[in-house]
Structures are given as structure tokens and as C-alpha cells.
From TrEMBL:
Protein family per UniProt: Belongs to the FGGY kinase family.
PANTHER family linked: GLUCONOKINASE, SUGAR KINASE
GO molecular function: gluconokinase activity
Protein name per its UniProtKB record: Gluconate kinase
Residue ranges that the Swiss-Prot or TrEMBL entry lists as coiled coil: none
Keywords: Kinase, Transferase
Domain Carbohydrate kinase FGGY N-terminal: 1-244
UniProt xrefs under InterPro entries: ATPase_NBD (IPR043129), Carb_kinase_FGGY (IPR000577), Carb_kinase_FGGY_CS (IPR018483), FGGY_C (IPR018485), FGGY_Carb_Kinase (IPR050406), FGGY_N (IPR018484), Gluconate_kinase (IPR006002)
Domain of life: Bacteria
GO annotation (BP), single: D-gluconate metabolic process
Domain Carbohydrate kinase FGGY C-terminal: 254-449
Length: 508
């Protein structure tokens, strides 16, 4: 079974045996176009070529015959948008989730109350990331492109179109467009009316477990894939990552701290947050992933490393050791709670939990006693407090968590892993999972094609590298500090816009 994950800066592919053992791996990167502020686009052609390249590589490296490939199943990044013309040619590049040019229109939707009505049916937070806002932006600011558009699709639909000549989008990617009614499993009429588009301008909807055969012979011959080989539509990278780290049982929470971060939990029915602050995306028709995406994950630790510890960084690089390891050793000497120094990590605005693009970072509680070491520890703690606040919002919808499966670059630090256990007051397991979205795609593929009865087989396919239990002394300190952290965060909120506008006005 081959799992393919179409990401924002690269596409990965893993060939597995039916027990989930990795046989071959390939990864090909491409450019993210950021020609003007707020733009973040990819060339669909580059991505299609990357998909063909990684498929070719794993088939060659794995030395498999076409008859041995039982299926190929797909994961992809959410929220991308490509406009296709009457001749089925792209009118735009793929506008990714990271593109912010629709911000003005998502703000309008939030302010006029229509956004809340649509969110309550679609489960996609109102934000420039989502195609809903992007299409309004295109209609207003690129009307000539909007008028020529035959289909509004995403990158995975594009790849399947090139391979099979049909426009089909599965529920998982559809549920992240902001236009898909998650309760009725169809395109939402109110959203379509708002956008001035008709249903036939959107792809046909299929289930994540639906399959298609008959690959275009040109690519079938090139890759040595038979027209009989089934392709599984699959799901989105976030939802498949929950599957790939075995966080699919009720109460098992997936926490990721990579460059950004996320908290996600699987439920068996779609649910929405009364305040519109959580997403609810389909993994399959019967499994839904509720959660919040966070901008400020490890990227904040990177800032600490680069801006507060530049000399240490240079020494560490000369000694060929990780500056992050040195910094976590420094932070480890400071007690839990950083002697009352609090840090709000909003260096890059924030999505969940506050959904405020103007949010900015701050240290609170500084005294002359505090050192740079306190600042590192406070930064690491602040990132986790912020994720914990997301968890508190999720908990209201899905109940108390039972345990945490955590992944991402942060897991290289035992101090940071323990902090997660202490602040969340939960057992934290670090699964030994390689390319979790590819594995998730492959397991979904095995399930879709009847090779396994249940998605839970994934638990036998991944190992465990570390387990952390909450330390009572530490979590008591965190319990005292958290309410202060949350209150300060709420009090700062009204001030963010003004300082952000000052920064914009005076930036050069
Ligand atoms: P991405 O999300 O881009 O795939 P990763 O999951 O590798 O990236 O996470 C990168 C982040 O992991 C870095 O920004 C840094 O904060 C953190 N990180 C990397 N190495 C370490 C380490 N040794 N100790 C603690 N954190 C680390």
C-alpha cells in the first residue's frame, strides 16, 4: 500500500507492506511563491510532477511489480484553491492555507454575523485560510478570473483530475473549504449563494474511502501502475495525522508542536463550537476531527534561539551540537513556572485559541531576578499554556481527555515533553511514527479496500519512544499560574490591534 502526502512545501510518499512496515520512502520539494505580502502559492504543475516523482521513486526503490501494489491512498494539505477554466486549465496557481490576502473579506464575514451562520454548518473557522473567504476575495479583486472559472478545486482534486480526468473531492478536504455542510454531507446553499457560484462549479463529492481505477495510461506506463490498481481518495493531512499517530479513540488527544502546533481529537459525529473557534473536519463519514490550529509552536523557540541566544547558537554550531539542546538544558535549571514569569507566544498573530491576527507576544511578571534562562523556560511554557487553552475549548465539546499522543520537533526535548504532561495533567506518549499522514493515508487505504476491518490496526504499526506522567509538584504550580496567564491574555486582547498597526505603519 502506498501513502502519498501532498504538503505545503513538499510531497512525500511511503510504500508499506500490509503490516505497516516501511519499504521505501521518497520526498520531493517545491517552491512556495510569496512574491507579494500575504501571498503563499504553489504551482499545481510542480505538485503534480512531485506526486509522479515520489510514486516513481518508491515503486523503483521498493522493487515492486504493478500487480503487487494493492492501492495508493492520498493525504493532502487543507484549504488550497485552484481556479480551472473552461478548457480544464488552471487560471491560478494553488492558493494555499498560508495565503492571507482574503483577510479583509473574512473580517467582514465575522463582523456581519454571516460568518457565524456559515461556520455553524460547515465547521471551518472563518479565516482567510479557507476557500470560502478566498473566493469572495477573488470575486471582488480578480473578477476577470472569477468569471472565467469553470471549477473551484483544491490541489488533491487537481492531482486526481490529471490522473483520472474527473473532478472529485472527498469529504475531508471538502469539510475544510468552509462551503461544505458537515451535518448534511453536501455543499452548503447559503455559502454558495454568498459566493455567487453554483454547485456544478464545485467538484462532485465522494467519501474518503471511495476509490477510483483507470489511471491515465501515460502515467500508468510511466510509473508501471496498472489501470486495475485502485486509488483511494483519502483525507486531509491533519485528520490523517491523528490516525497515523493512533489518536482515534475517544479522549485520546493528538498534540503537535512542530513549527506551528495543533490539538485534535476524534469524535464520531460532527460538532461545532458555539464561539466558532474550533474546526471540525471529516476523517471518514463516521469519524470527525475537532481541534484548533496554532501558529505559534516551535517557531517561537526558534526565535528565542536566534534572537536571545545568538552567541550560544554560534558556539553550538561550531561544536556541532543542537542549540535547542543547550537551551533546554539551560531552561531545565529554572523551576516549573519560571519563578512567575509568563510569556504569551503570539509572535506571529494567532489562530486558535484567540483567532486574532493582530496578537503580539509579551513577557509578563518580569523582575530583576529573572534571567535569560527564565525567558527560555517561560517561552516553552507559554507555547504549551496556549495549546492547553485550546484543549480547554475542545474539552467543552468532546469531554475530558484521557491521554495525549504528541508529535513534532518539540519531542526531541525531554523537558518540553514533561512540560506538556505537567501542564495538561495527562500522560503523554510519543509515538514512534514516521510520516504520520502517509501512514494514516495508507491505513485508510487498507481499510477502504477491505484489507483490514478497522482503523485501529494502526496501533500495531507504530512504536512508542517515550512516555511521560504528570509530576504533581509541577502541575500544582501550573494550576496556580494558568488562571493568571489566561486573564492577562484576555486583558491584552483589546490592545493588540493598535500595537500591530503601529508596527505596520513604522515598518520599513
Ligand atoms: P515542521 O513542523 O516544520 O515539520 P518540526 O516538527 O521538525 O518542523 O519542528 C521544528 C521545531 O522543533 C523547531 O522550530 C524547534 O522549536 C523544535 N525543535 C527542533 N529540535 C529541537 C530540540 N532538540 N529540542 C527542542 N525542540 C526542538
Amino acid at each position: 500500500m502506498i501513502g502519498v502526502d501532498i504538503g505545503t512545501t513538499s510531497t512525500k510518499s511511503v510504500l508499506y507492506d500490509m503490516k505497516g512496515k516501511v519499504i521505501a520512502y521518497a520526498n520531493t520539494g517545491y517552491q512556495l511563491y510569496q512574491d507579494i505580502p500575504d501571498m503563499a502559492e504553489e504551482d499545481p504543475e510542480d505538485i503534480f510532477d512531485a506526486v509522479i516523482e515520489v510514486l516513481g521513486q518508491v515503486i523503483r526503490k521498493g522493487k515492486v511489480q504493478s500487480s503487487e501494489i494493492k492501492g495508493i491512498s492520498f493525504s493532502s494539505a487543507m484549504h488550497s484553491l485552484i481556479l480551472m477554466d473552461q478548457n480544464d486549465q488552471p487560471l491560478t496557481r494553488a492558493i494555499t492555507w498560508a495565503d492571507n490576502r482574503a483577510a479583509k473579506y473574512s473580517d467582514e464575514l465575522k463582523n456581519n454575523g454571516i460568518g457565524a451562520q456559515i461556520y455553524a454548518k460547515t465547521g471551518t473557522p472563518i479565516h482567510p485560510m479557507a476557500p470560502l473567504s478566498k473566493i469572495i476575495w477573488l470575486r471582488n479583486e480578480k473578477p476577470e478570473l472569477f468569471k472565467q472559472t469553470k471549477k473551484f478545486i483544491d490541489i488533491k482534486t487537481y492531482v486526481f483530475f490529471r490522473l483520472f480526468g474527473v473532478y472529485k473531492m472527498e469529504y475531508s478536504i471538502a469539510s475544510a473549504t468552509g462551503m461544505f455542510n458537515i451535518f448534511e454531507l453536501k455543499w452548503d446553499q447559503q455559502a454558495l449563494e454568498l459566493l455567487h457560484i453554483s454547485e456544478d462549479q464545485l467538484p462532485d463529492l465522494v467519501e474518503p474511502t471511495d476509490t477510483i481505477k483507470g489511471i491515465n495510461l501515460k502515467y500508468g506506463d510511466l510509473l508501471n501502475i496498472s489501470p486495475e490498481t485502485p486509488f483511494v481518495f483519502g483525507a486531509s493531512d491533519g485528520t490523517l495525522s491523528n490516525l497515523g499517530v493512533n489518536a482515534i479513540d475517544p479522549g485520546v488527544v493528538a498534540v503537535t508542536i512542530g513549527t506551528s502546533g495543533a490539538v485534535r481529537v476524534v469524535v464520531d459525529k460532527p460538532v461545532v463550537d458555539p464561539d466558532g473557534k474550533l474546526f471540525c473536519y471529516a476523517l471518514t463519514k463516521d469519524k470527525w476531527v475537532v481541534g484548533g490550529p496554532v501558529n505559534n509552536g516551535g517557531i517561537v523557540f526558534r526565535w528565542v534561539k536566534d534572537q536571545l541566544f545568538a552567541p550560544e547558537r554560534i558556539t553550538a554550531e561550531q561544536m556541532q551540537v543542537s542549540t535547542y539542546d543547550i537551551l533546554t538544558q539551560i531552561a531545565e535549571k529554572i523551576p516549573a513556572g519560571s519563578d512567575g514569569l509568563l510569556f504569551h507566544p503570539y509572535l506571529g498573530g494567532e489562530r486558535a485559541p484567540i483567532w486574532n491576527a493582530y496578537a503580539r507576544g509579551s513577557f509578563f511578571g518580569l523582575t530583576r531576578k529573572h534571567t535569560r534562562a527564565h525567558m527560555v523556560r517561560a517561552a516553552l511554557e507559554g507555547i504549551v499554556y496556549n495549546l492547553y487553552v485550546v484543549m480547554l475549548t475542545i474539552e467543552k465539546l468532546t469531554g475530558k481527555p484521557k491521554s495525549i499522543q504528541a508529535t513534532g520537533g518539540f519531542a526531541r526535548s525531554s523537558l518540553w515533553r514533561q512540560m506538556l504532561a505537567d501542564i495538561f495533567e495527562q500522560d503523554v506518549t510519543i509515538p514512534e511514527s514516521f510520516e504520520s499522514s502517509c501512514l494514516g493515508a495508507a491505513v485508510l487505504g487498507m481499510y477502504a479496500l477491505g484489507y483490514v476491518d478497522d482503523l485501529s490496526v494502526v496501533k500495531d504499526m507504530i512504536g512508542v519512544t517515550d512516555i511521560h506522567h504528570p509530576n504533581t509538584d509541577n502541575f500544582e504550580v501550573y494550576r496556580e499560574l494558568l488562571p493568571i496567564w489566561i486573564r492577562v491574555s484576555e486583558r491584552l486582547e483589546p490592545e493588540y490591534k493598535e500595537i500591530a498597526e503601529f508596527q505596520k505603519k513604522h515598518s520599513n
